[in-house]
Amino acid sequence: MAESENGDVKAAEEQIKVVTLKLAVPAFITKEVLEFPIGLTDTLVDIKQTLAVFPVTKDLTSFEFHYRDINLTECFPEETTIEAVFEELQLEVGDVIFLQVKEKAYNLAAIYDHLTRFRESIGLHFIDKISQEFGVASGASTLNNLNLTPVKEQSEPESEKSTEESESKENDDEEKPAVLELSKEELSQLKDASSDILNLTTHGFNLDQYAKFDAPTKNLKMPIKSLTVSQWSPVPALQQAKGDLMYLTLQTLENETFNITCHYSGFFVNKCSTINFNPAIKVNEKGSFNKEFLLSHLVDSLSPLFSKTLAENEETLSNATSYPESYLLESNCFLAAPWVVDPTTFKNYPDVSRSQLPLITNGVDGSDYIKEWNEDVQTIRELPTTTPNDQILREKLLHKSLHDFTEVATTTAINIIKGNVTPMNPGEPVNQHIFLKNGIFYSFNTEDAFLSTGGVEAARYASAKDLASVKILNRMNVSSISNLVTCIVDYLGKRVICQAPVPGVLSSGVDEEVPEDKVAYGLSTDGEKFVQDKSFENGLKSVAEVFHLKTHSVELENGAKSDGDLLISKDIKGIVGSDHRKYIIDLYRSTPLDIEFIEQNWNESEESSYPHKQASVRHEAVEEWWRRSVSALLKEEAERLEKEGKLEAKEGEEKPQIVLPTDKVVFNPDAFSGINESEQDREDVRTISKFIKEHLIKEFLDELPKVNPPFDGGHLSVSLHKKGINLRYLGFIAQNAQERLSKTLSSLKETISLNEKEISKRKEEEEKKKNEEKDVKEDEKKEQEEEITEKSLIDVTQVSASYEALYKTAILEMVSRAVKHLLRKLSADLPCYLMPSFVSHFHNCLLGGDVNSTPVSDVDEDLKSFFGAKSLEYSQLTTESVIDLVEKEVFIRYRFQLPNTWISEVSKLHLLREIALKFGIQWKSQPYYFTKEEFDAHVTSETTQVVENGSKKNNIKNKKKSSQTISTKEVLRSSTFVADDIVNFTPVVKDSGYRARVLDDMFETVRVHIAKDEKEVAFRYLAELITVYEQVYGRVNPEAAYFYSNLAQIYFELGAISEAANIGRVALILNERTYGFDSHEAITATINSAFFEISNKDFVNGFKLYGQAIKDLCFTFGTHPSLVVTLANMADTLAGVKAYDEAVLFYERAAELSIKLNGEYSSITGLMYYRLANLYITVKKIKDSGKLYAKCVDIFSRVLGPSDTYTKESVKYEDNIAKYLKFLDLQKKQTQQSNNKPVPVKSASGKSAPVKASKKKGKKDIQQDPEFANKSVEEILKFIEGDKKKSSSSSKKSKKRSL
Fold first, then answer.
1. Which of the 8 DSSP states describes residue 616?
2. CA of 825: how far to CAs of 476, 494, 694, 828, in Å?
3. Could you check whether the bond before residue 77 is cis, i.e. omega within 30 degrees of 0?
4. Which of 118-122, 637-641, 785-789 has the highest average model confidence (pLDDT)?
5. Of the N and C termini of the chain, which has fewer Cβ atoms inside 10 Å?
6. Which family does it belong to (predicted)?
């Protein structure tokens, strides 16, 4: 394995020669020669795409590349590399390559491409996006709303930094905190940003303020009024012979209308009108005419406002944002739809041509809409992968094809759910309908294969597991075996499985009454026999190796028995397609059953049983079990060989490598599903099942306090899945979190009790010493001071707060997921048109019970006649019944009994968000009130239209005729939600996309160079990696967000702080747009970006970003433990720029939150007080500082013990402040006494005679105090803090100690 990894790194490190490409383009575009660098591994299509970026050539779509007299476009495929072109031509490649770009005659397909490019270049694709996307305001971002200033460029050279660092090391004895000078304007802005953050953490904000997204494209103007396919299209046969391809109608901003002919030679204005057809070129009296090769040039010549508007739009975009990623369209992905939106900020634009888009995007005869998806994907998979460039090209094409499939499948699945598509079997029940459209097979969860293991629930679970296995096989690129192109669409509570069918699998013989079973390997469709085509074995061995499957025999209760050993699970079926490829389907059993969980929680006869018996272990858990098992075996084998002396390297040879057989650590995927099974196989599967609870969950809980607890339910789910923990263990995790919280608090209580006894003991000893009147000698003082330099036992890990946060999030996640399943079940037979009413009613019952426990469903009376009584049964739901349903569902799915008061303890706004994200609901951004008091105080009226029946007199026939009128009425809300509050439902899509391994290998190469301290090489590879990522994924994609997040961290580690800050902003935008504006990925990216800005000495920008992160965190979670640390770090930053007053406020707020989360008697609360006390000294609040040090003494002595460093330092500071305050008090009294002294009497000699002050018994002369007399303020402060020379190491540790 090590050798293969090294080989991958070597392949990724291939040097790519870069040359200069010079392109001579047609003179009507520009007379200048375009020049840009390219790699020899770049293809002709890469150069073509580069031309699409240049402003002068972006509208050029029909052209050819020529090298001298050779037409490269005709001679070579577009995917051919430049290196291969020159090798084929037997020419050497110099440092400069000169090519010509010549225009090519249009055909109808080229005209369609040109029109599409023209729409994009003038901005119409932004409008198209609004009507085509599945969600409202998809891809929303908030970064531009923060009004960040440009990233500061680092001006200090590295040499100066190193000099300063060396100087600071030499002056350790005079160490002072770094203080930066800010301008008055910067300091003012920083204070304003700080004030906003404090207000946010104190007062919060409303939901209507939350959905304020930036929209850089909202102020764009359209440079034309309309451009449509003319009524005279399609071109008649008479004109086709003359070269006409299509006719267009253009309406300019000047309100002029032109009819345009699309000719093979270009575009020209013709003589057509609305009633007369004359496609000939229009020539005016002077003999001039309008004809251009590019449509944009023609429109520009007809409309003076065209170019002006385009220029204004470019300026608008540049002013709106410095980051194009905030408005660029997505690449090979769906953008995240926010769960809360303001529908008033989005509008639809009139555009007749939008309805004609299918005409120009689906090919000349519409055939492009129907694709052979399977053939396309399988052909791409079979492309060569010998070189990195081959791998990159393959990944690029594969990701594009997979997403195109998912996009088409999702659109059709939504139409299927809405009833817009006719099924292939209309006579069957609705849940058994199947569909074949656009080359994709669609089906619902069919329970036929899972009748004995859970029915529909088992089928639903199996479909997700099948997709997970498909993703792994896609990533691992298993050869000689194929899997189906698959995605899953959940919409309005219904799940549609979308697959590109195996070629020939749906066709049957004409005379066949019973369709032939197509299964060639595995258990037959009827489950009666096993089929084992030997031709599958080579390919299935690779699949078995990927999933660590053991060859095994299977015998079933019905008598079916395998002929020898199976390589894979019996449920995975092999099929030979009509294209002669070998396919495997139904991959849901590629991991073992979670038998421990099933045996404990599944009993078909019990109502509270787990829903199905298909519960299996996650792939991540199997991989971790396999990795640890292999590691243990390698260690054991190494010890054995070492004892035998077989690991010693011979002269001139490398040390022998230990290699284990691939079948050494494997499992039987069919264990516990048949009869007469191997006990060892069952024991292996049981071991993997136990591995989840005994290791993975335990380790997750152990590590939790050391890392940030989850920000929300989605964060918790992702974290558990990465660890290999199934979400069915949420109840177990919540229970353990509660137990650990209880143990932590009990342990703290016991520690405090022991320390209190020690404190009492010491006090008694001190009293004894005082009674004996023993003076402390100077050397004893020194010993005490030396003791303070010892290392503290302080642990600022927020253990109790972390487990409490986990418990809270687990409850929220269980409830929201249970609600998702209830919404699905209750709406199974519900018409789509009733979904807004049903969902709002359910939410009123669940979340608005305090406002109205028996809400009324808001369905218009005149519309009820369209639906049967059964469809409206949901209106009988009440708060009590819904809460009961939720509690039962949580117990069934997560084996956890919710506390009786859970509905009053859970945050209803957070629960609203979690349900919306899981079910695909977009709510209107407005305040929602969940208590009776709030609701009554803010109750609003809704404008509704009411249909009224009446009658009117017909004057002609003198008869009365019934009529209906619509009137508008204001109706007060009686519940928290109404149907109109739901803006939209969005699909939740699971696709088979994956992270390309070749890119991971390239990233690993970069890390290798960084480890070797080869920074220049690392920077070069990073620049190349950015280009490759954009080639494979595009600029706006979740994988690009992941890449830029890592890239920013790497740049920071390499010392390129400014670059890290810039890249961090891009990562933030991409995470917001692809994962969600308030997702945990976006919050993490915001915090990281703020850190980079602060490191770049841009404090105002950093605090704005921290404010955004805190806002989102408060809204998605509430008071999160990480807020304490974040506020404390921000306080340190403020102190570093002399904003001491604001720093004090931040530490005060951090201390308040710490008390709320961790309790007053906790290490971190004591540390917050300790640092705040230090700041109080700085701002001259000496008395307040003394009080806080007293609190610190109380906290630290109880929590850490009286002997701890922090306890001793706090005691010392408290004592010194007390002395200082006493000195100030005595000084004040002395001043008062001096003011009250009598005027001196002059003697005979004229000199003033001194007045002797009488001394009272027990009083000392103030002037005789040698410790405070004649000391400056700075010296007094030094005295309070202690002699730094004696406790320098202690102070350094306290400063450098991180939270």
1. B
2. 37, 9, 34, 5
3. no
4. 118-122
5. N
6. Belongs to the CLU family.
